[in-house]
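Hi all, long-time lurker, first post. I run a small reading group and we've been trying to get comfortable going from sequence to structure in the token notation. Rather than ask abstract questions, I figured I'd post a concrete chain and ask someone more experienced to write out its structure so we can walk through it together at our next meeting. Sequence below, copied exactly:
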Amino acid sequence: MIYNHNFDIDSVFDILRTINEKYPEGSPEDEALRIAAVALFYVREVQKLDEYREFFRSFYTPAIDYIVVSQTFTTREEADEWLGSGMAKDGDLVRIAGQGFQVMPERKGTGLRFVRMPLPEELMKNHPPRSE
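-- Answer (accepted) --
Happy to help. Here is the structure in token form:
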């Protein structure tokens, strides 16, 4: 599930307050809700809400969304030309003719090479998630 990281903090406070009214003061639920509300209040007071929003977004964003292909090539020859141009960096992830590769240092040299690294869409195609 994807959550809204641009949430309205005042709405969150209102909802926490409404939920908290259902529990007796001093109960474990009351304490947990107060702790959560005060933590959010603190984040806003120290002006770290934008940083928290980014943390919240990254916490609930699937890792697959962080994988970024830096270059796409239709042929291996085109990719090899780019690799030799000096524009490639160690760790770059590229797509060559629909397949993923990562740029890595040569084993016994000073240059770079491509190492096969399947892209998330390739893995999903070959191993779709099980629906339970």
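A couple of things your group might point at:
DSSP finds five helices and four strands in the chain.
The two ends are 15 Å apart (CA to CA).
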